[in-house]
Amino acid sequence: MPPSVNATEAREETDFSATAKASARRRRFRRWLWRKLPLLIVFTLSLLLAVVVLWHRVVIVIEGGHAGVLFRLWSGTEIGYVYPEGVHLINPFNTMHIYETREQVALHDFDVLTVKGLALHLFLAIRYQPELELLGLLHQRIGPDYLQRVIIPQIESVMRKELGNYTAEDIYTNKEGLLTKTILLALDEVGRNFVHVEDIIIRSIELPAKIKDAIEDKLTQEELLKSYEFRVQTASREAERLRIEGEGIKQYHQILAKGLTEGILKHQGIQATRELARSDNAKIIVIGSGKDGLPLILNTP
């Protein structure tokens, strides 16, 4: 048999052997996979479940106008760094606390007792926001519910203390700007607790109906009295002006009478006669002579 035929047969045998081995490996792998399939299914499902459950604890999205404070399980609140807007990856055993950093408005109402024990009801609008740089301390020492824990109680305390020194009428009419002074004191007090209160707006003050009507009636009468006093003062000043004007006119005539001699009067009369004679719009007829030698003048159309 030629050598080439032997070589070909050898290659065919080698290829067959390799194919058989590969087929055997595939069969063994399929048998192993079939035996391990339940375990693989359980592992895959467990992995997917873990991803679903832990996704919101690992992938943290901080939206616009918010910031985050991280609480680490082993070391506590991270007060030195505030997490900005965006996506953050954290350890699932840690917790991200998100705060709104935009200016917010809270409506609140409460009762205040005046110096005479009368109850007033105040309606407030409070504009506030947390101090961004101190957000970690705010979370550690006060917590997310800082509006109810700090802002509102301190505002109530200051306003009750200050307004309790005044009467209902003083508060209702804001006598000498007492409401503004009280608000400034409240702002200063609240600002010491890692928050910034922009303004406290008193929307309205509610009084008992009878007290409110009595105060408004008194204010109306006071305004009418002021109006009457103003008219009296105006009339008095006008009378004084007319008196001074009359005195001036009187003094003027007295001075003029002393300074006008008979010769000056005659001279003025002659000058006036000349001016009339030169007028193009009048015809002048001189009839004899008048008293003191001045002509009598008759104007005719």
TrEMBL record:
The keyword RNA-binding does not apply. One of its GO terms (biological process) is mitochondrion organization. The chain crosses the membrane at residues 37-55. It is found in: Membrane. Gene3D superfamilies: Band 7 domain (3.30.479.30). Keywords: Membrane, Transmembrane, Transmembrane helix. InterPro entries: Band_7, Band_7/SPFH_dom_sf, Prohibitin. CDD domains: SPFH_prohibitin. It is a single-pass membrane protein. Residues 57-219 form the Band domain. GO terms for cellular component: membrane. PANTHER family: PROHIBITIN, PROHIBITIN-2. This is SPFH domain, Band 7 family protein. It comes from Methylocaldum marinum.
